[in-house]
Specification:
CATH topology: 2,3-Dihydroxybiphenyl 1,2-Dioxygenase, domain 1
Structural class: alpha+beta
Pfam family, one: Glyoxalase
Protein name: VOC family protein
Shape: globular
Helix content: 10-25%
Order of helices and strands: EHEEEEHEEE
InterPro entries: Glyas_Bleomycin-R_OHBP_Dase (IPR029068), Glyas_Fos-R_dOase_dom (IPR004360), VOC_core (IPR037523)
Length: 125
């Protein structure tokens, strides 16, 4: 299995699209900007910041996952999400969501790790 990137998902602000959530996004963009990160994606409820010199070095801040049942703690982009899903299912892992093709161009599922953390496993289509 080939891993393309691993991104921590930092929960921030209100998950209801309020000004508090937008302010949390702005505050995080400003803070992580001081560390050299730049915004590369923002859907209002999730914003990804990346290093301009190492684009796979990323952090996401998320008010709440728009389509999943929970907000994942970590995202792992893989080459073949269906193969990873089959491997985890075969090993008896708890699948929390999906697999599902999302409107923003990813196929993903959520799995719970041994520590109770929810991992968003995805492939860009």
């Amino acid at each position: 299995m080939s891993i393309r990137r691993v991104v921590p998902n930092i929960p921030v602000g209100a998950g209801d699209g309020t000004e508090a959530g937008a302010a949390a996004m702005r505050d995080n963009a400003a803070f992580y900007g001081l560390l050299g990160f730049e915004e590369v994606m923002n859907q209002g409820w999730i914003m990804t910041l990346a290093s301009p010199t190492r684009p796979t070095a990323q952090i996401s801040v998320m008010t709440a996952d728009r389509t999943g049942p929970v907000t994942p703690d970590l995202s792992v982009e893989v080459e073949d999400v269906d193969a990873v899903h089959a491997s985890l299912t075969g090993a008896g892992a708890e699948i929390v969501y999906g697999p599902h093709d999302e409107e923003w161009g990813v196929r993903r599922f959520f799995v719970r790790d041994p520590n109770g953390r929810v991992i968003n496993v995805l492939t860009h289509r």
